[in-house]
Specification:
single chain, 399 residues, Growth Hormone, Chain: A, 2 domains, mainly alpha
Amino acid sequence: MSKNKKQPIWTRSFISISLTQFTVFLAFYTLLTTLPIFVIEDMNGTEAQGGLTVTAMLLAAIIIRPFSGKLIDLMGKRKTLIVSIAVFTATTFLYIFIESFLPLLGLRLFHGLSFGLFTTVSGAIAADVIPASRRGEGLGYFAMAMNLAVVVGPFIGLLLLQYAPFHILFIVISIFMVGGALTAFNVQVPKTADTLDEPVKIKLSLSDLIELKALPIALIASLVSLSYSSILSFISVYANAIGLSAAASYFFLVFAVAMLLSRPYLGRAYDTKGPKFVILPCLFLFSIGLLVISFTNSAWMLLVSAAIIGLGYGTLLPSFQTMAIQSAPIKRSGHSTATFFMLYDSGIALGSVIWGLVAAKAGYQQLYIISAVIVLAVIAIFSLHQAKHPHYTAENYTA
């Protein structure tokens, strides 16, 4: 075990898959922020149509998730990675030529399919190239690629729109994606982690669609993502409503800084002390951060809540993902990852609808109080799960 702990995380393959992940999420969050503006301003569409451009891509990603594991079995992880990033990149170029809403909506659905497949296989490969005894730490670093894109993507998109039209923005994003696609060719998957040498069944069974062993953790994580969607969907709207729109622009920056500062320690703690040691305090911090938001009446309170949530939620996603992957054999990492993100994305998508209804009926303060209560309930649910199931360790994740 001591030898395994000395194995490096930052190998050529890990750096390459992380950079590729970063470019994909950079494009994802840039488009997430700017496409509603594109629909409203350039296409004379409505706010509802702008929102549909977000929902369509997430819906397509959720639909493809259950079939991703089977596709990975058929093609192998590396080939699936190359094909999915190539399709995602090619689709990004098509935004340059879109001039009306219905073609845009169709493009978003198609883009979501490649996004769902890519993010499934990239997470599985990242877990495969990280030493087993450092998987919690390594997946924490890997998740930072997505977390940084949350900040960098919208910043680049909104900055460019101040000086250039939308087609220039789409060209810039497409060029970024070419770089990400080229980086993917540097990724090598360990032979022990791939499934190409195994006979592939033609018929689909339940095990081809989901990994049952990963289901309990994925369900718990979906409740966390349900609460987190209240931040993604409504933090800027809430901040505008209480006169803190200027501070809201720094919310995710503070979130990212707090996450970056805590990630190395918490990742190592996961590997050495176990998931319970990390996840329970982080759930508590996340709930406190949501409660602080609900009572926010000043810029400093909003930014304090961002820091608390960065410390809490910022570690929950990679920790739960690590548990889901470690719940099954290494060759099932694609299915485990697909199962995890299928439910995680469903929580985000469902939450955007639920919290909209709650905000309309009860207001934003009650919205964030209810979100905090859900996270507190997750603490109890996760504790019960840990009491009934053996401790998840690197030894669970074997061929």
